């Protein structure tokens, strides 16, 4: 029985629907739309109510024809859509017709689901078949105008007409689509070549245009809604890469760059439209990438890593009640099955299936899963999918979050047949608990941390005693500045923040604080550690899930205390961004930062889960990614597991991964709005844009607080318009794209800022264009640049964007650096620039009478070494072109020695001096101190650098 409020809601909506049917001339209400059948639909879905009221005659006709009472078995939708869309040539009309058809079918699917007229398998298979038919119909409609203009694409080897291959990924590939799912697609084609029409274009360009049209036809939101949201981010290299790739390019990518999570994604890959036979051929070539020939237990680690990333996202976004991603949700059931598929699928071919439930049966047959466990997981999966469908049916939104408002909770519970929210939630938790337990047993395979034992009596009494914190007890625990530390602890204990805490949060804090005090007391610098850890505690008082995490992971708590005591910078970062505490859970990853390719892959995975148009969330993901990995580098630096050169390498790689992703996001947003810019030959650009890093980034010498010196370069026709709905010139396209990149990097959000960006090294500095063509760069560098700009070019290199353009830029860089120069004039100009810098930036310039040594700007410091290196390249690269090969000072100094331009022992000593200065700079940055030391430090090194300076520049 429904409560009065829900019964009143259904009664009113039923009256509205009957009125709409009567107004549309439906004299007799079909039995399928009688109150006993209509009520569950109206309770479950506002969207379907709206469809019924907007199109009453059409819905009544469906009911009279019996469409609500019978399943539509394959291949129903291919023929149905062909009839529905027959002889429509106008794009707007085609889009309207298919959207309205989809909405009516949506009403039918929800109707059958809520009235118990179909199984989960029937419903998801119909949804999947409709998606397949819709993509095929969109291809057929979009191809006609393309063929008329460009002809058909022809393979360069076979001479055969090429057709688009569309792979469905995720739930579409498994034919398990849900009610309001997006569809993950990958576009491909067999062979490169050209079209055979009047306006000939490459096959790739043809299929990119075709793919863009298909996406627009199905994804674009109109007054009638959408057909499917389309996600293309699972394609090789993700956003920013070509929308369609040849089979050869696909094979090469997965052979050379494929990641574990892409193996996971391809378990469900299925050709769903276009050239189905070609799609099967492609998947056959990729099968060895997905399924290893041996039992592959490394998949456990990969799945745990993926699950960990999802759990962090759930925690960050407070999505514990997400029935898909939350603990014990749909994704966990999928992980359990797919762990076995990745590990054993190459040996047991029966596991190479896409749908989930049949895989569970195979696992039982193989003795890998008890039948009772299979039954529990299958029941949980069906229940969770039903809940997911009810949540999505309400407004046709792609969400898996349980409602928070009491009215929404009551409505969902009643729609699922429960007396109230408490009964429903208890049933949900019973299912999720069973999934959690099996996920822990099958996938997590973690080494159990030691139990969080009761804290010592002294630490417990110190925090929980009703009296003030006792300095005497603090001293007994080992605090040297006991009175001051007791005062700090007392200030937290009696502060306003604690007085207003909810009861559960206070209980968690009272569990946590004795453990923290005990851990800190064991540290050699206990007073310092306490001072630095308390702001972190204050920052998470209302997000006590982080306290629970530390309670359950004593090793993470120990690492937190150690790192905070070692570095005020780390302590400050953790206090400002507690989400970084997740990094402390695993010592192996904390103290072993990933390589560049792993960084790119991880960031791409995180961005894949962000909607295309959610710029705010993209910025948050980028910022947390950067901060978490810089934290790993800092932890490894302090631990001594990373040498100086590697610290700078990793910090530079993090910046490059961020820049690569930012360029891809900006390109995607720009092309979606304006289309693609054109090259000089009229063909459409698929990139032709690069970011050059200068300074520390260019020299692979980034520090913890370094800004990014960037220059943007493109290589398309400045004046030709883009091919999109809002055409702009190529020059304007890249200028706007550069602005987007800078905005993504520099905007301050709640997660901070990515990087400060300095663009003053572009041609003509701040007065110049934000992005210039390669041709303009060449003209400026060869004929107008100052000597100091050529000095800067020594440390320039491609850091993100088009690699082909990067090679052209590097060729230009080498030509400029290898020009013959008047050495006397060069020497004078370098000395003049160095003196200007000393006059403005040295320690005495900033503070006359200063008695410190500025590691960077004072005589004998870092900048002197950099200027000597830059002078040497400009002076000697004409004779020794190999000196223009590298952009970092260390390898350039090696080059000086190899070419005989500098004695080998002197080059070694200069390198050691340079690395010593940089190492000290890193240490001071982590201590939040300026890069200055006492004048008594580095005396011999400074003397060496100054002597080299005087000798090189012939200063007596």
TrEMBL record:
Gene name of this polypeptide: glnE
Gene Ontology terms, MF aspect: [glutamate-ammonia-ligase] adenylyltransferase activity; [glutamine synthetase]-adenylyl-L-tyrosine phosphorylase activity; ATP binding; ligase activity; magnesium ion binding
EC code: 2.7.7.89, 2.7.7.42
NCBIfam families per record: PRK11072.1 (NF008292)
Pfam families found in the cross-reference section: GlnD_UR_UTase (PF08335), GlnE (PF03710)
UniProt GO cellular component terms: cytosol
Organism of provenance: Fluviicoccus keumensis
Protein name: Bifunctional glutamine synthetase adenylyltransferase/adenylyl-removing enzyme
Family of this protein: Belongs to the GlnE family.
HAMAP family referenced in this protein's UniProt entry, alphabetically: GlnE
Tagged with keyword Nucleotide-binding: yes
Assigned keywords, A-Z: ATP-binding, Ligase, Magnesium, Multifunctional enzyme, Nucleotide-binding, Nucleotidyltransferase, Transferase
CDD domains per record: NT_GlnE_GlnD_like
Residues covered by the Glutamate-ammonia ligase adenylyltransferase repeated domain: 38-278, 558-809
């Amino acid at each position: 029985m429904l409560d009065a409020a829900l019964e009143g809601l259904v009664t009113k909506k039923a009256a509205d629907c009957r009125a709409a049917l009567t107004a549309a001339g439906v004299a007799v209400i079909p039995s399928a739309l009688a109150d006993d059948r209509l009520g569950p639909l109206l309770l479950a879905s506002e969207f379907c109510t709206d469809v019924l009221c907007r199109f009453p005659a059409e819905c009544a006709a469906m009911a009279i024809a019996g469409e609500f009472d019978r399943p539509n078995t394959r291949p129903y939708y291919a023929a149905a859509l062909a009839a529905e869309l027959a002889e429509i040539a106008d794009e707007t009309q085609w889009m309207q017709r298919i959207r309205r058809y989809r909405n009516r079918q949506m009403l039918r699917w929800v109707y059958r689901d809520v009235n118990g007229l179909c199984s989960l398998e029937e419903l998801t298979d119909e949804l999947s078949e409709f998606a397949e038919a819709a993509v095929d119909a969109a291809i057929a409609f979009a191809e006609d105008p393309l063929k008329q203009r460009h002809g058909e694409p022809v393979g360069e080897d076979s001479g055969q007409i090429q057709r688009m291959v569309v792979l469905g990924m995720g739930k579409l590939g498994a034919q398990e689509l849900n009610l309001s799912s997006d569809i993950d697609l990958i576009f491909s084609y067999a062979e490169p070549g050209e079209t055979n029409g009047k306006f000939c274009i490459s096959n790739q360009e043809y299929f990119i245009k075709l793919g863009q049209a298909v996406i627009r036809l199905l994804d674009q939101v109109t007054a009638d809604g959408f057909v499917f949201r389309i996600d293309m981010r699972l394609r090789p290299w993700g956003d920013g890469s070509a929308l369609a790739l040849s089979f050869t390019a696909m094979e090469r990518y997965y052979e050379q760059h494929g990641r574990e999570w892409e193996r996971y994604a391809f378990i469900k890959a299925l050709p769903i439209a276009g050239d189905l036979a070609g799609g099967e051929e492609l998947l056959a070539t990729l099968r060895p990438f997905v399924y290893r020939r041996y039992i592959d237990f490394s998949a456990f680690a990969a799945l745990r890593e993926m699950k960990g990333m999802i759990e962090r996202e759930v925690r960050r976004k407070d999505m514990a009640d997400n029935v898909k991603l939350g603990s014990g949700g749909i994704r966990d059931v999928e992980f359990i099955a797919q762990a076995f598929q990745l590990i054993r699928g190459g040996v047991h071919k029966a596991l190479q299936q896409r749908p989930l439930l049949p895989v569970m049966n195979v696992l039982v047959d193989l003795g890998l899963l008890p039948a009772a466990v299979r039954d529990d997981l299958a029941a949980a999966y069906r229940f969770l999918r039903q809940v997911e469908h009810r949540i999505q049916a309400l407004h046709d939104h792609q969400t898996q979050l349980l409602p928070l408002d009491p009215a929404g909770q009551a409505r969902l519970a009643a729609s699922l047949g429960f007396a109230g929210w408490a009964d429903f939630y208890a049933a949900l938790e019973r299912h999720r608990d069973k999934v959690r337990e099996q996920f822990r047993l099958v996938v997590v395979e973690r080494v159990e941390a030691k139990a969080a034992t009761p804290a010592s009596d002294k630490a417990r009494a110190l925090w929980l005693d009703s009296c003030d914190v006792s300095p005497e007890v603090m001293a007994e625990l080992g605090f040297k500045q006991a009175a001051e530390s007791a005062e700090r602890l007392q200030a937290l204990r009696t502060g306003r923040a604690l007085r207003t805490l909810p009861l559960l949060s206070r209980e968690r804090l009272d569990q946590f604080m004795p453990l923290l005090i005990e851990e800190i007391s064991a540290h050699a610098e206990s007073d310092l550690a306490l001072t630095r850890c308390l702001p972190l505690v204050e920052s998470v008082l209302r997000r006590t899930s982080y306290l629970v995490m530390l309670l359950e992971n004593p090793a993470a708590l120990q690492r937190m205390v150690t790192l905070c005591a070692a570095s005020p910078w780390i302590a400050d970062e953790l206090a400002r961004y507690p989400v970084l505490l997740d990094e402390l859970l695993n010592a192996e990853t904390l103290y072993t930062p990933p390589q560049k390719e792993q960084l790119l892959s991880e960031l791409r995975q995180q961005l894949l889960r962000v909607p295309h148009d959610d710029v705010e969330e993209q910025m948050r993901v980028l910022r947390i990614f950067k901060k978490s990995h810089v934290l790993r580098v800092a932890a490894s630096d302090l631990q001594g597991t990373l040498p100086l050169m590697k610290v700078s390498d990793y910090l530079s790689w993090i910046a490059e991964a961020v820049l690569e992703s930012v360029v891809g996001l900006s390109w995607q947003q720009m092309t979606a709005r304006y289309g693609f810019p054109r090259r000089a030959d009229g063909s459409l650009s698929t990139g032709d844009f690069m970011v050059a890093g200068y300074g520390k980034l260019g020299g692979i010498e980034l520090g913890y607080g370094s800004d990014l010196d960037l220059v943007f370069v493109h290589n398309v026709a400045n004046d030709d318009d883009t091919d999109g709905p809002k055409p702009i010139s190529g020059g304007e396209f890249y200028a706007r794209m550069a602005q987007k990149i800078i905005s993504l990097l520099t905007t301050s959000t709640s997660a901070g800022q990515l990087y400060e960006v300095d663009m003053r090294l572009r041609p003509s500095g701040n007065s110049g264009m934000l992005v210039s063509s390669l041709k303009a760069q060449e003209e400026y560098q060869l004929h107008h640049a100052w000597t100091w700009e050529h000095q800067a070019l020594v440390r320039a290199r491609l850091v993100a964007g088009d690699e082909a353009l990067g090679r052209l830029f590097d060729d230009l860089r080498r030509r400029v650096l290898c020009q013959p120069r008047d050495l006397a004039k060069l020497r004078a100009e370098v000395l003049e620039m160095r003196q200007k810098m000393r006059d403005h930036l040295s320690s005495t310039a900033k503070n006359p009478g200063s008695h410190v040594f500025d590691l960077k700007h004072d005589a004998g410091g870092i900048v002197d070494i950099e200027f000597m290196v830059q002078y040497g390249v400009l002076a000697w690269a004409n004779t020794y072109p190999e000196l223009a090969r590298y952009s970092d000072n260390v390898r350039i100094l090696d080059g000086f020695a190899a070419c005989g331009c500098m004695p080998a022992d002197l080059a070694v000593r200069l390198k050691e001096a340079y690395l010593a200065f940089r190492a000290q700079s890193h240490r001071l940055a982590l201590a939040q101190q300026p890069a200055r030391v006492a004048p008594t430090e580095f005396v011999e090194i400074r003397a060496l650098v100054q002597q080299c300076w005087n000798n090189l520049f012939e200063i007596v």
